[in-house]
Amino acid sequence: MDELFSGLDISLIKSFSDNPFEAMWFFFVNGGWIVFVIFFGWAAIHLWKDWRQELYHNKRKFIVLSIRIPRLHEQGPLAVDNMFAYIAGTHSGNSWREEWIDGRTQDTLSFEIVSIDGRIDFVVRAIRQFRDIIEAAVYSQYPDAEINEIEDYTTKVPKDYPDEEWDAWGAEMIPVKSDVYPLRTYPMFEDKVSGEFKDPMAAMLETLGRLGPGEQIWWQIILVPIGQGDFPKKAMETIKKMKGEVAPPKKNFIENALEYPFAILMDVVEAFTGIGGAPKAPPKKEAGQPKIIAMTAGEKDIITAIENKSSKIVYKCKLRFLYIAKKQVMNKAKAVSPFMGAIKQINSNNLLSLKPETKRVGINGSLWWFKDHRNSRRKTLLISAFKKRSPGFGTPPFHLNTEELATLWHFPHSLQVKAPQLNKTEAKRTEPPINLPFG
Questions:
Q1: Number of domains in the chain
Q2: What is the pTM of this model?
Q3: Is residue 346 within 8 Å of residue 354, measured between CB atoms?
Q4: pLDDT band at 413, cuts 50/70/90?
Q5: Per-residue CA distances from 309 to 75, 198, 235 (Å)
Q6: Cα–Cα distance for residue pair 179/197, rounded to 1 Å
Q7: Is 285 domain-assigned?
Q8: Model confidence pLDDT, tens digit, residues 14-27
Q9: Phi, psi (5° rounding) for residue 397?
Q10: 36 is in which domain, residue-wise?
Q11: How many beta carbons lie within 10 A of that of residue 301, not counting itself?
């Protein structure tokens, strides 16, 4: 122990133990300042970026579009699938200057279904510059559709809770496992014998159409267009794991740094002594048959489903559900449970399922401490995030492809859905007055 501290100033150590602030200052002036520079530099960079992005966001002008389709049509979800693929063209990569100087971020779109007093509308909210591409996507599949700019319906309800007149229940829908697995999509709702399509949207619209005066349901799907390179790689990694094709572990920096000089040293020894290194052992072959051969039919179907999902265009998505009503008419059993039942149609135990998140974001009736206060706070934040169409608030976004999105949001098949209060155009496209009702 004496030898260990022989090179240290014992009086200095004693002064450190008597005055810890002196010790902190000593380490600061002798190199510790670098840590502070790095920390504050990192914080300054992110504060700068956040400031530039806020300025950019404040300059954007948003529009809310109501879309109506002809009452009699034969288009199924495939038409909306094509729409989502076309709208993926809104993705744009930002240069260094655009990201750090201009504060530019990827602009998002919000596809919504809203029922106000039982009257149903399909709504899209986006920046004004996206109006042309949205209209082109809709008219290419529904030439006789009507698209009208309307007032944002979310401004007609209170934003702060508790409220004397209104109450709310809401949640974000999240996946129960990795998003490389797909949901049940609209091709699975077609009868293989008769060819008849059973629209999964029918149950949802039936629930929305049953609302009465003073009740509203908002269903929101936020789309963040992204590059298409990363998700297929993520899906392929999952498939390889399922097949048992485990990639060899990557060597870290230290291993690579030691391997090269060691190899040179062995070459030098071999050159001077003439003795070669020991021959490398042949790679070991795993006993038994390949895992892919031993897979069940169900496991092979899962791999096929993952491959099919990754073959289509994907978005990062955020899903939110809100039931807002005046207190004297609010009835969760009438709205929430049937809506969640409609969502369960696209869930699958062996693939992907969606569930309402209630631990951090959604309204949770089983909270123990300060339940009313915490739930009121959650209602305020959730409604605020819905109104702002924020992709960042709450749970992380997850990947859905165009086929899954078209299953969750599509215009109902006229031969399958008979919702009496669904807003549809009766004739060819005209310019009718804005008549979206507000509570």
A1: 2
A2: 0.79
A3: yes
A4: confident
A5: 22, 21, 9
A6: 26
A7: no
A8: 555 566 666 666 66
A9: -65, 155
A10: 1-59
A11: 13
